[in-house]
Design brief:
89 residues; alpha+beta; HU Protein, Chain A; three-stranded antiparallel β-sheet; 3 helices; 5 strands; 43% helix; elongated; Histone-like_DNA-bd_CS; Hist_DNA-bd; IHF-like_DNA-bd_dom_sf
Length: 89
């Protein structure tokens, strides 16, 4: 399911206009992204938790040249499903 299909399904099931559901979707994604960029967790009970995890610096390889390169330490987004989601899937 992609974004368009999700928005249309929610609109159909709730009776809310597609453009209104789309606006709420955009705000939800923006709020989650903003919180993660601040290093905060976003916990949706029954669904899961969005958080950032620190990925250590490491050596990698440039696939075009085969040359070894140093990859910097960085934070990456992660999702941990909640108990209810795990049971449903």
């Amino acid at each position: 399911m992609n974004k368009t299909e999700l928005v249309q399904k929610i609109a159909k099931n709730t009776g809310i206009k597609v453009k209104d559901v789309d606006a709420v979707y955009k705000e939800l994604v923006e709020a989650i992204s903003e919180s993660l960029s601040k290093g905060e967790k976003v916990q949706l009970i029954g669904f899961g938790t969005f958080e950032t995890r620190k990925r250590s610096a490491r050596k990698g390889r440039n696939p075009q040249t085969g040359k070894t390169i140093q990859i910097k330490e960085r934070n990456v987004p992660a999702f941990k499903p909640g108990k209810a989601l795990k049971e449903r899937v």
